[in-house]
Design brief:
The structure is a single chain. With 110 residues, the chain is an all-alpha fold. Helices cover 73% and strands 0% of the residues. It has six helices and no strands. Helix 1 packs across helix 2, helix 1 crosses helix 5 and helix 4 runs parallel beside helix 6. The chain is globular. The two termini are 17 Å apart. The model has no long low-confidence stretch (mean pLDDT 78).
Length: 110
């Protein structure tokens, strides 16, 4: 799922395939098919994981003081995570416009 989220955020839904996810995760494609019967099943799980993460509170860095290196790094990571979440939202929304089956999956991610 982590690999699928990465592909989806960086390359878009059109490039997301079982083969591409397997390459990203550095596993055999048969392993992706073992865990997910179809691309729709994979998308459903990705949407649910995305929903779970989107609702998560940002994690504070223990001992970090606003302005120091660890604080700045944490801020950058949180902003990148929000950007990735917005990219994934946009991909699911666009897919839902084209396909009723994907609309159901996109709705699962909300």
């Amino acid at each position: 799922i982590e690999a699928a989220l990465g592909v989806l955020a960086r390359e878009g839904l059109a490039q997301l395939s079982m083969r591409r996810v397997a390459l990203e995760a550095v596993v055999a494609i048969s392993l992706t098919h073992y865990h997910f019967e179809s691309k729709a099943d994979l998308l459903r799980e990705v949407a649910l994981e995305h929903q779970r993460r989107s609702g998560a509170e940002p994690v504070a860095v223990a001992g970090a003081v606003p302005g120091d290196g660890r604080w700045l790094e944490a801020q950058c990571r949180q902003r990148l995570a929000r950007r990735e979440a917005l990219c994934i939202d946009a991909q699911f929304d666009a897919a839902a416009l084209r396909s009723p089956a994907l609309a159901e999956i996109a709705a699962a991610g909300r």
